[in-house]
Amino acid sequence: MRLSKISFRYRRRGPFVIEDADTELSPGDVIELTGVNGAGKSTLLRLLAGLARPTQGTITGRPEVVGFAPDRFPTGQPFTVTAYLRHMSRIRGGARWEPWAERLTMGHLLALPLGELSKGSAHKVGLVQALMAEPGLLILDEPFAGLDADTRDVLPSIAAEVAGRGGIVVASDHQGGLRGLTALRRWSLIDGHLKEGTTAPAPASPAVPTQTAGPAQTPATMTPHTSATVPTTGTPHTPTLTPATGRPHTPDPAGATCTPPTPTLTPATGAAHPAAAGSVQAPVPTPATGTTQTSAHPPAAGSMQTPAHARAVNAAQTPASATSSAEGGAAGRSLTTVAVTLPADDLPEFLARMRDEGYRTHEIEETG
Amino acid sequence: MIALATFRLAAYVRSHRVYQAALLALAMLAILHGSRAPRGEEAGVLTDTAVLIIPILAWAARSLLDTEPDQQRELSAVTTGGRGRELAAGLMAAFTTCAGFAGMGLAASLLLGVSATPEPAVLVAGIALHALAALTGTALGALTSRAILPSPALSIMSLVLGFLLMLLLSASPLYWLTVPVVVWMRAANDGELIGRFPELAAVSLAWCLLALTLYAWRRLRR
Which domain holds residue A339? Predict the structure, then answer.
């Protein structure tokens, strides 16, 4: 399946929601699509499903059988769960839905009217109708939202099964529920542009991650004034910047091994001490070990430390509640600009997450 | 596609929306055929019923198409393999509903309206006019359904005004600019229904197909 330079807008003179998306999906792909609210994820999924036609570009090679599970299943229908699924089964040519209902533990829901279902239960109905026909393209819009723990656990394996028999799975997901899958492709929609990164297999255990020194570009030490969440074995992880009080992170005395802290910035005090105020170098997982390093002596705020393979990001960060003094902040809190260095592939998601958390982020060109 | 049309019909019935149009049709037929027409006016009785039931058929078609939530419409499109099939299934279900109500009107005309059994040619023309009425109702209902006109107020006004416009235009010399329902009635009352039927049927069919094409175009370009 190929997306060739597709762009989409809802109205003739309206802004493009998606611009120049160009990529290819192969049988067996599992794709996680991320982006901030309103970034166009659902629009892209509708384009993939054939529910909307690209304004520009083409989508070719769509598998014949498509399964689509919406983020909000339409419960306003005069059917019980069983009656609804039977109808869907007939429309699908007699596909068997019962095994899927059993697998998603829906036995107690079958006799209920759709209108009486909770969000999570309704979501399961949407999943069953999407899965029952063994789709060649399975599209899941926020598949983990509202699901109980058992179903959340089983969903990645279902996605893997679909991919294992040559299907394509595309899931928009804020919760990272599919990140345990190997060879997960990650798409991010940022400002209408589709960007892609890849991930390595997830760690066997999501227990307390450990930082391990590796062939890094910076020493494998953690500095007192910066900190970073450290994934292991290459697990994709995007650092989280949180407004903090500037309390320094205490590194593990062992040096090479430490419990990963959450990256912290110090917006409140950053103006007074730019060098120590939130300059952070984000995790740089290496292919082999996923070791993350932080800069021992970051430069002044707003500067960049950029490995050769990474793009520089100037993240002007402001807590949602804070106001820049330059902008007449009533709270008297200052604005701090930090430079973050991270793998290029992680950039889209990092920016999206920062925006989600209320920070202002700007990507700037690397100047060397 | 038939399974999807069945699904939509089942939703229409189970939601009880079907009773709105059914009660309206029964009331109209009871008033229209409160007293039997004199002998020799069988063609007029059949034609009047076919014309006057059109707005109810349009209401029924619109109601059926609007029963399905918008997101279910998308799911149905994915499930059937494309928006074109979903659209066709919806129209099939709407036409089936309209044909059912038109059949009810035809039965009421034959059982309650006429004083004598119509001639075979008149009966065939009457059946054909009811089929055209069902198609006209389907087209008008589809064009005023939520997928085309999201505002309920605008939708209902458009349905009523659409039928009134049809009456006004077909009463004028420009009757060929719409489904010529008034000309149907005039021809029946003048004893010319059989002779003019091919012309009137062709014009009616053409406008119905044009309206349905417009509906499909509007739906598929979104």
Answer: 208-368
